[in-house]
Amino acid sequence: MTSSRSTHTRTVGLGCIALCTLLAAPAFAQRSATDIETARQLYNQGVELRDKGDMKGALEKLRAAHALGNTPITGVELCKTHAALAQPVEAREVCLGVGRIPPLAGETARSQDARNEAARIAEDMRPKISIVRLHVTGVPQGREPIVTVDGAPVPLAALGEARAVNPGKHDVSARVGSGAETRSQIDLAPGETKDIALPVVAPPPEPTPVTGPAYPPGGGERPPPKERSNGLATAGFVVGGVGLAIGAITGIVALSDKSDLEEKCTNKICGVSDHDSLDSAKRWGNVSTTFFIVGGVGLVVGLVATLSAPRSSSALAPVPPPTRRAAARSMTVTPDVGPGGVGIHGAF
Hints:
Layout: H1 2-23, H2 33-51, H3 55-69, H4 72-84, H5 88-99, H6 109-125, E1 130-137, E2 145-149, E3 152-153, E4 163-165, E5 168-176, E6 182-188, E7 193-199, H7 231-264, H8 275-308, H9 324-330, E8 332-338, E9 341-347
Parallel strand pairs: 1-7
Antiparallel strand pairs: 1-4, 2-3, 2-5, 5-6, 8-9
């Protein structure tokens, strides 16, 4: 018992001396005194816990010591602790990291021994690493599965490829979008390789949103469609009304001129002085006729546009299109002839 305790004390002491030498090197001058002292204490605590069999406690202490010190000595002790916990993936990575630590000026033989030991452990861990290949089936075209191993996502590019894991039990899962998740648990021996198939069921496609007016839920009564205005019919009736009004006014003027000529002319024979009045009467008559024609065409256009317009699908009784007689009733034109001139008044 005394010999064993003496050997443990000597090992810790030699490691501490080598660690102190490395931490005092110029390359670590940028580290604070607190970091250096903390690394020493964590290193000693980790080695003592490992010798007592508390591997998880030792792992925490040595991981913290290596983060602060980053020396071959802290690295190799952390590497050996991972190996003792059957974690060859982490043990190999830490040991390979020791080889990437640049040598320091004045590095001791103990540090070089730690580098050599780390390289040897890294090679010893290689055949102990287990391999799993994940094959996801049932993924629809254009969709991407979500795959995890022990909760860690697996990149799509790595699916189907050899994935390094530690020996032991592992939980794997796969799903597509919001679909059901496929779960499986695998148990791998050291160095074992397994192919795992993960069939997934894709969720149903999302319904395509329906565009258009929203109707009350439960199949309630749909609101009646809005009646579309018929601009052509309106324009036709307006032109027709204006044309008839102007035709009426100019017709009255023509009739007035004709009446005057009848009083002056005998047997419809007029003198030279009455030729101007005769031309004026004819001119107003032609204008009146023209506007009556325009008004008539406008009314016909309005009537045809009204009859050809789409009928409303509402439950109300359809309103019959206006006829010429109705249009005439809706547009009242009354000529006004007086001693001061000729005018028109009415309602539309």
